[in-house]
Predict the structure.
Amino acid sequence: MRKAWKRGAGKPGERRGAQPSLALPGRERLRPSGAGKAGAGGARKATGRSQARVMAAPGALLVMGVSGSGKSTVGTLLASELGWKFYDADDYHPEENRKKMGKGIPLNDQDRIPWLCNLHDILLRDVASGQHVVLACSALKKMYRDILTQGKDGAALKCEESGKEAKRAEMQLLVVHLSGSFEVISGRLLKRKGHFMPPELLQSQFETLEAPAAPENFIQISVDKNVSEIIATIMETLKMK
Ligand SMILES: Nc1ncnc2c1ncn2[C@@H]1O[C@H](COP(=O)(O)OP(=O)(O)OP(=O)(O)O)[C@@H](O)[C@H]1O
Ligand SMILES: O=C(O)[C@H](O)[C@@H](O)[C@H](O)[C@H](O)CO
């Protein structure tokens, strides 16, 4: 049975995609395109690197990567293409985090954990209600991605300061890692205007980055591709087989 995704109520930081053009049955199994040719595990080479295992259709897509890798650009278009709700994690940074980055000081775990817990709560609430979501979020470390999917109890580091209730529920998440060289991405950041994130912080973003690896459910796409090619690759991965 095919199911059309619903639009939900808009909240600050939420953005809404256009009319859905792809519907995925909620409980059917999803296999990345080309998985059959790639052999066991479903890994395939087309995107550069992929460990998108056979899984239930994802309730949420995380578009991750260092600053300037294209998360907001790709995430917005993807949500529009899918008709899924879009969140940009940057809209949820507390003022102190934005000020810190604005001063050229990289965030640390303590700065990021309450922010990620909050995003987890938002994702879980939506996914639990049947709302499908695209989240653009740096999510640079494995631990950060664990917090997004499992909440603080599932993560290696706790976030007591968030004062939020522990949540054990997990969601089906497909991670899309936008990956590129320092040179290409810094070139784009230097051209980008009107953004609070100073290009000087890019080095620390690369130093912090833990690229997703098995058993995470992810695909990695080169930022050398143009945005349409990136979207097409993700849509291809989401296609039912
Ligand atoms: N695939 C691409 N090819 C060429 N330019 C791109 C591509 N993706 C994004 N850009 C451009 O690169 C710049 C950075 O993109 P974007 O702001 O979406 O990155 P981001 O990862 O969301 O950054 P941040 O985390 O700092 O908010 C923008 O000017 C955008 O237009
Ligand atoms: O984890 C982080 O260090 C932050 O999320 C940064 O990635 C910024 O928010 C983003 O890059 C701003 O544009």
User: Anything to note?
Assistant: The beta strands are 14-16, 29-30, 49-50, 55-56, 60-64, 85-88, 133-136, 173-179, 218-222.
